[in-house]
């Protein structure tokens, strides 16, 4: 593949191999592409695949979306549909702008086709994103917005923190993802507990103005804990589940990557594939298909995508696979699954 032979080696050398520097440089390039109708048209002709599907009341250009974390602040939004994505999820964004954790905080595990990150929700804040989306105007494909808790906000004030972000962004998102499963904000995963969700989800649905609200869950939950989350989501009319976030586990890493296994943070990419599918399948069984699932985790080729759909996902998201395989991955998945 051209991307894997020529483009990826260049990207991976940027900043002396600093993964975050390469990520920032790539976003900078794509933000310039996003401002050029001619370049957007050329990309669209090469990568876009029409495979429309309707899930939780929204019509998606195809079932493959860009996962949260790639374009946190929406800097390159017009570029993602042109690269073939059927929808885009920005964020995770928080009420207060925050720098995230100290660098280095993003690590490539090349032989495992994986990434460890402990970014810590670095973003410009919900109000800055709202200003950018207002200026940008409508996009050709649905926009999801992932919302998280600000680091400075105590857990007992989390509901107000999430709601304030949602109110600022409600006019601009087509759906909203409640991220209570990142491992990189202290105490955040405790918000997956029933008591916290019972308080958070009704408030989010009330402020969403009828737009879909989804909950993103961790792969490290036990089946009993996942079942409890699903029960609460069904009780409060949540539109869907995003399964899964990154994992604190380190199973399945290649020998060459063991030196990085001790880095703190969430692991994404190919080692997560089996567990992500297990969670998707479990949620599908628990709900009897009543709750749509966005499957994310370890999708690196069309076979991975097909297995995730077979497990019960209605839509897919990619992040780490896109980093390793490039935009051709999105096109190949869409051609396989349409």
Write up what this structure looks like.
- There is one protein chain.
- The chain has 338 residues and is α/β, with parallel strands linked by helices.
- It has 12 helices and 13 strands.
- The strands form 3 sheets. It has an 8-stranded parallel beta barrel, surrounded by 6 helices. The chain has a 3-stranded antiparallel sheet with strand order 5-6-11, with no helix packed on it.
Summarize the structure.
The chain is 40% helix and 16% strand.
Question: Which key terms come to mind for this protein?
Answer:
12 helices, 338 residues, three-stranded antiparallel β-sheet, eight-stranded parallel beta barrel, single chain, alpha/beta
- Mean pLDDT figure: 92
Shape: globular
How is the main sheet built?
Answer: 8 strands, parallel, barrel
Tally of strands? 13
Total helices: the number is 12
Kindly estimate the percentage of residues that lie in beta strands according to DSSP: 15-25%
State the order of secondary-structure elements, H for helix, E for strand: HHHEEEHEEEHEHEHEHEEHEHEHH
Helicity, as a percent range:
25-40%
Spatial gap, N to C terminus? 22 Å
Contiguous uncertain segments of 5+ residues: none
The value of Rg in angstroms is 18 Å
Give the spatial strand order of the biggest sheet. 3-4-7-8-9-10-12-13
By secondary-structure content and strand pairing, the structural class works out as alpha/beta
């Amino acid at each position: 593949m051209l991307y894997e032979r020529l483009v990826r080696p260049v990207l991976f050398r940027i900043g002396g191999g600093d993964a975050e520097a390469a990520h920032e440089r790539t976003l900078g390039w794509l933000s310039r592409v996003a401002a050029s109708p001619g370049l957007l048209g050329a990309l669209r002709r090469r990568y876009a695949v029409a495979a429309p599907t309707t899930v939780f009341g929204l019509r998606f250009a195809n079932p493959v979306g860009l996962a949260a974390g790639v374009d946190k602040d929406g800097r390159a939004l017009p570029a993602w549909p042109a690269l073939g994505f059927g929808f885009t999820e920005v964020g995770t964004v928080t009420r207060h702008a925050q720098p995230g954790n100290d660098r280095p905080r993003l690590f490539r595990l090349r032989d495992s086709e994986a990434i460890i990150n402990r970014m810590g929700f670095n973003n410009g804040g919900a109000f800055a994103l709202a200003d950018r989306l207002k200026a940008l105007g409508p996009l050709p494909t649905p926009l999801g917005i992932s919302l998280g808790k600000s680091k400075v906000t105590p857990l007992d004030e989390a509901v107000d923190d999430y709601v304030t972000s949602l109110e600022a962004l409600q006019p601009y998102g087509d759906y909203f993802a409640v991220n209570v499963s990142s491992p990189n904000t202290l105490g955040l995963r405790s918000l997956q507990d029933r008591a916290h969700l019972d308080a958070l989800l009704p408030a989010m649905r009330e402020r969403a103005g009828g737009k879909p609200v989804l909950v993103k869950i961790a792969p490290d939950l036990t089946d009993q804990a996942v079942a409890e989350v699903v029960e609460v989501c069904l009780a409060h009319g949540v539109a869907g589940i995003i399964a899964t976030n990154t994992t604190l586990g380190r199973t399945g890493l290649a020998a060459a990557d063991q030196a990085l296994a001790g880095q703190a943070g969430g692991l994404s990419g190919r080692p997560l594939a089996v567990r992500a599918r297990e969670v998707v399948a479990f949620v599908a069984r628990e709900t009897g298909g009543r709750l749509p699932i966005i499957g994310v985790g370890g999708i690196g080729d069309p076979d991975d995508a097909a297995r995730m759909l077979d497990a019960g996902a209605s839509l897919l998201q990619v992040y780490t696979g896109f980093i390793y395989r490039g935009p051709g991955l999105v096109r190949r998945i869409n051609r396989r699954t349409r």
